[in-house]
Amino acid sequence: MQNGTFVRIFIASPGDVYQERDEACRMIHNWNAAHSMSRSVLIEPVRVETHSHAVQGGHPQDLINSQLLDRCDLLVAILWSRLGTPTNSDLSGTVQEIREFSETKGPDRVLIFFCDRALPSSSDLSQVQAVRDFKDSIKSNGLYAPYTEVAEFGSSFRHQLDLALNRILEGDEFVAASDQTTQKDEVIFVPEANTILAAATMSARPSVTLVSDLSRGCVISAGEQCLNSPSNERSEANWESGLEQLEIRSFVKDAGNKREKFRLTKAGFEAADRLWCVLILRRIELLQSDEHTYVNFEDINHKPFFRQKISDAFLLEKLQSLASMEQLEIVAVDGGIGAARLNGLSRKALREHTFLEFAEPEGDED
Fold it and tell me: Over 263-284, what HEC string results?
């Protein structure tokens, strides 16, 4: 059992900034992937659409606040062209959430972001003015941060999140939360990080490269193929985030002190082996028509993984590894493997690894 600190962050915003809400959740997920194990801190993003439940007996906003705000440790508010629907006590639900949270938890527990990009053509001018008036009303307190694009918001939010966590974790009001599940060695990475590790080991000389090209931008490659979509800044940011997570966990290391070529460490190879076991089991599960059917070796390797075919020797090695752990039933043929099927242990392994996600390469196919 692993003990640690559990922090809940309430994300308050009208519906016009749904992309920013998703980006905030992604940044929190990235923070957890990079720091939760080493710092024993887990952050949960709390949103009305995912955490509130239908109850009766009061104004909807009051009920939402009683359900969610009291249990949260930090509030993040995001505003652009809408302030939201008025409540019994405030200009909008978001304003009420900000006020009540600031009064009960303290103003240093509130982060407010205002979007400055061009307004939608369908904007309600009264709502736009309400946002501007609210912004003016808190300007003297210096409580907010401006941004223009979603990616800029993500960077600013991540910076403010780090600062806020450093402040609030210094206190002793948090109760250690226990992970009631069996402790595992796995770290939950973003899908890009998992793909980088797995794809890198498909090459005869496993490595990861990050090259800045004047014409194409940043190019991240593993397994001898480009992973990101060059000249697409969001794609670059996603794959760089995955690479940074692997660096932080020491699964890869800079091979030349220039952050251009990275080598997998012993821990990186071991993690890649575990990822490939899951990938192979998922492929067999997809092909196995019923519980007792065997899947031919050739069929397992018929379709590529991450747009590349793995060698028969590579697949044989992974299947033999799974068989040695009794996670596969196999049919031996001339010293090799002719077919395989899942058993109880392999199905259990698949259930335990449903959290693992992989990103498909976005670069040009060779």
Answer: EECHHHHHHHHHHHHHHHHHHH
Q: What gap in Å lies between CA 279 and CA 48, rounded to an integer?
A: 35
Whether 51 shows a pLDDT value over 70: the answer reads: no
**Any residues with CB less than 8 A from the CB of 48 and at least 6 apart, and which?**
64, 68
Highest mean pLDDT among 138-152, 180-194, 309-323, 348-362: 309-323
Q: Please measure the distance between the N-terminal and C-terminal CA atoms of the chain and give it in whole angstroms.
A: 46
Residue 15: CB partners within 8 Å, gap ≥ 6?
Answer: 82
Are the C-beta atoms of 233 and 159 separated by less than 8 Å?
A: no
CB 177 within 8 A of CB 41: no
* Other Cβ atoms closer than 10 A to 69: 19
Helix (H, G, I), strand (E, B) or coil at 99: helix
Q: What is the pLDDT of residues 97-119, one digit of tens each?
A: 888 888 888 888 899 999 999 99
Question: What are the φ and ψ backbone dihedral angles of 235, each rounded to 5 degrees?
Answer: -60, -45
Contact 221, 227 (CB under 8 A): yes
pLDDT of 66 higher than 60 = no
**Distance, C-alpha 342 to centroid of its chain:** 29
Q: Are 74 and 10 in contact (CB under 8 A)?
A: yes
What the chain holds in terms of domains, given with CATH numbers, is 2-179 (3.40.50), 191-264 (no CATH), 275-352 (1.10.10.10)
| Residue 176: per-residue pLDDT | 30
pTM: 0.52
